[in-house]
Automatic annotation (TrEMBL):
Protein name as it appears in the record: ABC transporter permease subunit
Coiled coil: none
Organism: Rhodococcus spelaei
The entry's keywords: Membrane, Transmembrane, Transmembrane helix
TM ranges: 21-42, 78-101, 121-142, 163-183, 189-208, 253-278
Length: 284
């Protein structure tokens, strides 16, 4: 346990001073604010009252930007765009060690292989958890400003809803992070790992779901893909009110409980697979 703690601290220190970490986290924070609040508020204040190609009542747009809706909108972008960014973080954290030679040094002179990869996973888990909490706090602050500017009642979200949303966000991003670490370990490099991960999240899963819509045997498989489970969990929190208003990547294929269970299984499988691969093969 002491070696794992030391490895986690060392990895967290590396991540904390790593520019790529702050770029990716800042990108997600900016995208979240832009698509959830900036665009919706500009649309709300415009004369048209429609947003993103679909007619959305102004009252609905305003309701989405109020503090009470924060638990619903928190996870909307995590299924696809946020997941892609966090998968990139995991792939870079694991894959860059091969290009820089740090894995070889750490595994030959430092702790055991499982301890080393465990430290990386623990440090990334801390980063992901902190990111979700920060995004929730920022969303709550911005929504409070909107409520004050529009003379709306300051109704804060229920604690239970907030806890579920934060937990769901951590599970979704945690799964994508573990997936990125596995891909980075398999690819032994950041560039290929990031490319493969982004193609899977943004292209392959959407194509498979399209094929599954007309072929029942394929549909059974696509219903339990990582992105489908992540989107279903986000949709179960209220992010998919209708097809016209649905955020890309947010689905209602699985129930929230089943979606959370599937994500937990993927998380465990990705972590175990990473440990097995790193332990059994040469690091050269």
């Amino acid at each position: 346990m002491n070696t794992l703690t030391a490895s986690s601290r060392a990895e967290f220190l590396r991540l904390r001073t790593w520019p790529s970490l702050w770029v990716l986290l800042s990108a997600w924070l900016v995208l979240n604010l832009t698509f959830v609040y900036v665009f919706n508020y500009l649309t709300y204040r415009s004369d048209g009252g429609t947003g993103f190609g679909a007619a959305v009542p102004r009252s609905v747009l305003l309701a989405r930007m109020l503090p009470g809706a924060v638990p619903e909108v928190l996870t909307q972008g995590m299924a696809m765009f946020g997941g892609a960014l966090i998968l990139t973080l995991g792939a870079l954290a694991a894959g860059s060690g091969y290009g820089w030679g740090t894995w070889k040094t750490a595994l030959t002179q430092g702790p055991g292989r499982l301890t080393a990869i465990g430290g990386t996973l623990v440090a990334l888990a801390v980063v992901v958890a902190a990111l979700v909490v920060v995004v929730f706090a920022v969303d709550l602050g911005v929504s409070s400003i909107v409520a004050g500017a529009e003379s709306q009642p300051m109704r804060l979200p229920w604690v239970g809803d907030s806890a579920r949303a934060i937990g769901a966000g951590m599970l979704i991003l945690g799964m994508w992070t573990a997936c990125g670490v596995l891909i980075g370990t398999l690819a032994r490099g950041p560039a290929l790992a990031v490319g493969l991960g982004l193609v899977w999240v943004l292209v392959v899963e959407n194509l498979l779901r399209g094929v599954g819509a007309v072929l029942d045997p394929i549909r059974f498989v696509t219903d339990y893909l990582p992105g489908t489970a992540a989107g279903s969990l986000a949709g179960g929190l209220g992010g998919a009110a209708s097809d016209a208003e649905r955020t890309p990547g947010v689905l209602t294929v699985l129930g929230p409980g089943l979606a959370a269970a599937v994500l937990a299984v993927y998380l465990v499988v990705f972590v175990v697979a990473t440990a097995v691969v790193l332990r059994r093969r040469d690091v050269d």
